[in-house]
Amino acid sequence: MTALIQANDLNRSFTVNAGMFKPRQTLHAVNGVTLKLARGDVLGIVGESGCGKSTLARMLLGLTPASSGTVEIDGQDIAKLGRRELTRRVQPVFQDPYSSLNPRKSIVSIVSFPLEVHGIGTAAERRAKAMEMLERVGLPARYADNSPGQLSGGQRQRVAIARALVMKPEIVICDEPTSALDVSVQAQILNLLMELRQEFDLTYVFISHNLAVVQHIATHVAVMYLGRVVETAATETLFKQPRHPYTQALLASVLTPETGLGIPDMGLGLSFPDPLHPPTGCPFHPRCKQRLASCDSLRPPLAALAGDASAQVACHLYAPTSQESILS
Ligand code: SF4
Prior knowledge:
It is globular, with a radius of gyration of 21 Å. Helix 3 (107-117) packs across helix 4. It has an 8-stranded mixed sheet with strand order 6-7-8-3-9-10-12-11, with helices on both faces. Strands 2-1-4-5 form a 4-stranded antiparallel sheet, with helices on one face. The two termini are 39 Å apart. The protein is of the alpha/beta class. A hairpin with an 8-residue loop joins strand 1 and strand 2. Helices cover 30% and strands 23% of the residues. The chain has a single domain (5-16, 27-318), classed as 3-Layer(aba) Sandwich (Rossmann fold), CATH 3.40.50.300. Bound molecules: iron/sulfur cluster. Iron/sulfur cluster binds at residues 244-245, 282, 284-285, 288, 290-292, 295, 300, 315-317.
């Protein structure tokens, strides 16, 4: 597969305060993530709050530099692409449209701002392009000179989408783009994103804690746990036949439409581990009901499955050598 965007063994750690009178500690937010997307793919990234998916999104956008590893677009390291070139090709849509829109600017000036930064067209031409894009995302022209505070959450997210697309990027990184919206508006925004993907030949990375949303929109899914990808597969395969015990638990969970709750309790017994003190061996072993004797000491690598090279899983249950320990 020719990759439009790929992450190669991406790592990002932060030094954080662990508390009063305690030495600062290292938090490994993203650990050895390798992903590839072909043009037109929609990669859904799922996992509980704190699993590293938003840090990964910022790394793909070039907003958070990697501690090690690279992100490439068409084979070019984004760290070597200029900021202007990168923002021309990759754009974000974030969770909270209100905080990402300048409250003192008019809607049309927010949408035309990227064109201004890139020196495209005259002021009149930029306004015309912005108006065209606002119309395309379903925002009537009468709102053009309003400020973001005069719009509803769904309308603000339409403005954020128009701003992301006005430069005709190839890749859009959507970080929980519907989770701050009312349930009734979420479907409209998702459908809009799907239509725009077709129309503008877009490739999406779509981060969400809502599995139903990911199932609806994604062509492929990557499941993250404590900064690592633990399973990746085509969407249909993953939802029909989840392999990793964590993915199985996610799919068995009852999803809630309430925003801000993340993935609800999945009957896993223990809460999400402290990322500052990740478990040894398989990071999921303290919560795993299928763990083997070696799981607390040996970390399973993410490996392609025999018989389904498009799916990868990081679990000893699927390593050829583990069959003996399962059967014995
Ligand atoms: Fe469970 Fe072991 Fe697989 Fe980890 S490696 S998910 S602990 S069975």
